[in-house]
Amino acid sequence: MSNTVWELDFYSRPVLDEDGKKLWEVLICESPNDMARSPDSLFRYAQYCSSKTVNSLWLREAIEKAIAEAESSPKKIRFFRRQMNNMIVKACEDVGITPVPSRRTYALNQWIEKRMQDVYPQEEGFDLKTANTTSVQYPALNPIPLPDAVRGDQGDKWLFVSLPASDFEEMKEWDIAFEESFALSLLDIAPNTIIPGLIIYSPRANPLAAWMSGLEMGFLRFDAELRPQLRLETSLSDSWTLVNLTSKETVKQAQDFEIAKQTANGAHFLAVQSSPESESFAGFWLLKE
Asked: Which fold has domain 5-130?
């Protein structure tokens, strides 16, 4: 089994069959985890399904067909659609692949949006009334404090920073213990686009980065509803209090971070280092909201 990660969606589409029932479809694509690869070179598999045969057996057979076509099996399959959890989990486990509920389905979301614009409207049974967004956002739970074991207490410091998109082309050469990235070309942004980020300096940098590597990383989000803070969103709806913002200056920095994130089509990053003088990263994650 390779280190490849796949992203999967299995749901109804705005296309009706001859009986007036919605067609279902499985979409499977490769996660763009390699900066050097073009998104157009990533593996993709699509197959329609009658509403009469929507079950985990059909989905398992579709995954097996995709594996045969790709000539390799992924180490895990990410999916974002919570209402299909049981069916997707069973189909993946029956094939022997780990299913992962995730908001890190960047390539899949882009592909679905493109098919909504370019593919389904060309189908004979396209029904505009049933066409709605397929990118589901689930409400986050109340934020959870970071575990005591990875907190540096008063020793932690943090800093908002930014890098041009072109700098990430050299990410493979950086000294990073725990990391995950994706090809920024997926977002169709210019090389000089500024990518905002947050660096955490902690005396417990390695335990913190190791713990974060076990999470299904989603994105960073500024939240000012209860008290100003920067949250780390993971899995489908988990939310962690990463930084409490205690001054007008830091709140303004967080607001500027959000503006820069929108300008970069949602791209941003989170880094963990032991100190500002360190030339290596304990952790580095390229993220997208």
From this structure: Nucleotidyltransferase; domain 5 (3.30.420)
